[in-house]
Amino acid sequence: MEREPESEGERAARLRVVLWRANKAVEQVESLRLNERGLCMSDFAILEVLLHKGPLPVNTIGQKVLLTSGSITAAVRRLQDRGLLTKEVDALDRRISRVSLTADGRALIERDYREHMICLREITGALSAQEQRQLHELLKKLGLHAAALLRRD
After folding, report:
1. Which helix (H) or strand (E) holds 108?
2. Do 45 and 27 touch, CB atoms closer than 8 A?
3. Tell me: the pLDDT tens digits for 43-58?
4. Cβ distance 55 to 98 under 8 Å?
5. Phi, psi torsion values for 31, nearest 5 degrees
6. Alpha-carbon dihedral of residues 53, 57, 61, 66, nearest 10 degrees?
7. Per the CB 3.0–4.6 Å rule, which of 41, 42, 85, 152 could disulfide with 79?
């Protein structure tokens, strides 16, 4: 029995499932490796943003790492308790709390960032450099199109 040609909807649904499964698998590997080093994904993301962007307001960090205001507040407090971050009220606008890495936080994220890059190279090693560039461009195109659909609605 011959199979009917795949419809656009079926192809889109199949693509979405493959994209979701690939993302989950990558997240699981990343999470496992970070947990082995005593970090969760959100803590790593916060430390990594501060490493590359410097001191930032709490709400800006939350936007960059896709955490809600409650989640970013809890995560910053958790990292402060570990001595990895400091939080100070902005001198010009007392409504803003600015977060910075401590010396211990910088040392930890510099080490863990290098380890994380090794992990990501291992994960993406299934693809050639050209395939990685193609996938990057295609995923970027897909994400920008989805974002445009959100703005349109």
Report:
1. helix 103-124
2. no
3. 999 999 999 999 999 9
4. yes
5. -60, -45
6. -150
7. 85
